[in-house]
Give the backbone structure.
Amino acid sequence: MTTAPIELRAVRRCANVLNSLHATSYFAPELGKELAGIGITHPRAANFAVRAAAMGPVGAGTVTATFSNYKHELVARYVPEVWATASPEDVLAARVRGVDAALRRLLGAQTLASPEMAEAAELALRATEACSRSARPLYAAHADLPVPEEPHLAYFHAATLLREHRGDGHLAALTAAELGGLEAMVAHTATGKGMSPKWVLTTRGWSQDEWDAAVGRLRARGLLDEAGELTERGAALREEIETETDRLDRAPYEHLGTAGVARLTELGAGFARAALAAGAYPADLIGKG
């Protein structure tokens, strides 16, 4: 094991490629089919159930707190009612089946059975050994789940652990910056790298008036200009938040070591590019429009 300091940009690059493959599950029709098979048919109910199931049959407050950028009233429409339709255990089993089918479509059987996939799974799982449960509820819940035997599912599992570990830390950084869930999404969209306003309003439960009000609050803080673009101060705050997130997330990558992180990034980027080329994401998901 190594705990030598690692360049924080390398942490961010690796985390981003791991998250890219994890995030394909939210748009996979295979997962929707599996969830429909256990009675969960509404896309919002499916999303809340899949990501929250590791925590057990929790209420709307817990989901809103840990997901952060969803309007609580939207969450409360489906949680905890969704657990009367399907248990968290059934949801987790459906996710494994859906992810398996989706990865087979996106990457192909040859890639899933490749030495590179097995290597990526081993590296990602090794990185998770240094994750911390403290103050990281979504990570801690997923860390209690068993590791699948198949390399591609083990890789997805490890990517999920690393994604939630980073996400929990990111919420701490956003809170310290006094950005609520909607304000954080508005600021992220202004970078051109976040979800488009259309997708935020469609999936997160916020209205156009609420979006516009959040824009106004960010302008009042000097973070957005009149055109809705990040000011110099806003861009600096966004970078401070990401750097703090990197710092809070560095332990698993220091544990893996510089060479291991570089190799995992290389392998993960290849899988992510293949998934993107196979149509894993909606074309209008990212952007300011």
